[in-house]
Amino acid sequence: MLEKPVPRRPHAKNPKEPAMNSTPRHRRLTAAALTALAVAVTATACGSGSDGAGSNTADSGTYTIWDPYPQFDKSSAWAKLLDSCGTEAGVKIKRTAFDTSDLPNKALLAAQQDNSADLLVVDNPVVSTLAEAGVLTTTDDNKLDTSETDPNLLAAGRTGGKTYGTPIGANTLALYYNKEVLKEAGVDIASVKDWTSLTAALAKVDQAGKKGITFSAIGTEEGSFQFLPWFWGAGAELTALDSAEGTAALQLWTDWVKKGYAPNSVINNTQTTSWQEFASGDYAFAENGTWQLANAKKAGFAYGVLPIPGARGGTAAAPTGGEFVTLPVQGDTGRYATSQKLVACLTNTDNLYDTDTTLSYVAPTSEVQAKQVSANAELKPWVDAVKAARGRTSDDLGTKYPKISEQMWKAVQSALSGSKSPKDALAAAQSAVK
Predict the structure, then answer these.
(1) What is the 3-state secondary structure (H, E, C) of the chain?
(2) pLDDT digits (tens, 9 = 90+) for 217-265
(3) What predicted TM-score, i.e. pTM, was given to this entire model?
C-alpha cells in the first residue's frame, strides 16, 4: 500500500556496471542512505516476517526472493506463482517475507555484506533510496523489459536518469461516496467535476444533516499521501511547497474543517480510522484506496467511486502505491540472467492479472488493465485514477522526497489545527526543506 517514502553511491563502480567481483565483501552505506530509508519506511504497512539469508548463502540452483507479503503463506497463490516461475527457469525458490517497514533495512544490511537476495519486491518510494545507496542494478544492466509498463508508474522507480526494476502492480486514492447520503441531500454525483462543485455538494450534505467528507491528515506519511492529490490537483509541485497553488490546496482542506464539512478528527485520522468513519454510513465522501474495496462491499450501503477531481476539473494526479520487483547487485554477475527470467515470468500478462487480483492492485500495463475492467467493471474508476497517478519520488526527487513529505504533513497539521494560516504553514515548510 503506502506507504513513504541524497546519499552517494558508496563504491567507486559506475552505476551502469553491476559487476562486483572486485568489491570488498562489506559495503559502506552512507549515513544519508540509512537516514533517508528510516524516514521512507515510517508509513508502510503489512504484517511481520522471518529473517532469511541472501543469494550468496544458497547453492547455485536456488534463488532467493524477499517480498513484503507475510500475509501469504506457502499455500497461497503468490507463493505458488514464485515456485512455478522458479520451475520454469530451472531453479528452486527460497522465499522470505518481511514486514514492509523491515524489508528495506534488511536489504541494506544484506548489501553491506554482499549477501543480497536475487530479487527484492519493495514499496515503490524505497526504490530510489536503495538505488542511490548502490544496492540495485538498472534495467539497462539487468535487461528487464519495461516497454509495456505505463510510464507514470515506471517513473516511481527512476532516479538519476536510470530505471531500477518494474512495478508489479499499483494502488492509489480516489473518493468513495455513499449513494444514499447524496440522494437524500439532492446531490447528483455527475455534477461533481471540480473543487467548486465538490464543495457545493458538501454544503448540500451538511444542510441535509449528514456529514461531508473524511480523510487522513495525520502527521505521518499517510497525511502527505492523502494531501498530494489536492496539492497536485491544484497544479503545485513538490519543489515549491509554498506556491500559490499549494496554498490553495491547503486552504481547501482548512475551509472544509472550519465549515464542518470535514470532521476535526481528520488531523489524527489514519486511513483506517478515516475508513471506519465512512463505514458508519453518515458520510457522503471518503478519500481512500483500492485496498478498501473488500470493506466497501461489506459496508451495508450502496457506494460508488469517483477519481479525485482537479481544482479546475479533470482527474487529479494521486500518488501511486504498490511494489517494484528489483534485482540487487550481485558479486556473481552470472546470476542476473536467471533473475531476469524470474521477473519476466512474474510480470507476464497472465501472472500480472492473477497477482494484482490477489493484491487488489491495478496492473501496470494497459493490456492487463483492460482485462481487469472486462472482468470487473467496478475497477474502471480505479484504472482511470492509476493512469493519472504519479510517483512520490518521480521527477528525480529520489531520496529528497522524505524530507519534503515531512515538512508537508507538518504544514497540514499546523493549518488544520489553526496554529498557522495555510500560507504561513507552507512558507515555513519550504524554508525548512531548503
Answers:
(1) CCCCCCCCCCCCCCCCCCCCCCCCCCCCCCHHHHHHHHHHCCCCCCCCCCCCCCHHHCCCCEEEEEECCCCCCCCCHHHHHHHHHHHHHCCEEEEEECCCCCHHHHHHHHHHCCCCCCEEEEEHHHHHHHHHCCCECCHHHHCCCCCCECHHHHHHHEECCEECCEECCEECEEEEEEHHHHHHHCCCHHHCCCHHHHHHHHHHHHHCCCEEEECCCCCCHHHHHHHHHHHHHCCCCCCCCCCHHHHHHHHHHHHHHHHCCCCHHHHCCCHHHHHHHHHCCCEEEEEEEHHHHHHHHCCCCCEEEECCECCCCCECCCECECEEEECECCCCHHHHHHHHHHHHHHCCHHHHHHHHHHHCCECCEHHHHHHHHHHCHHHHHHHHHHHCCECCCCCCCHHHHHHHHHHHHHHHHHHHHCCCCHHHHHHHHHHHHC
(2) 999 999 999 999 999 999 999 999 999 999 999 999 999 999 999 999 9
(3) 0.83
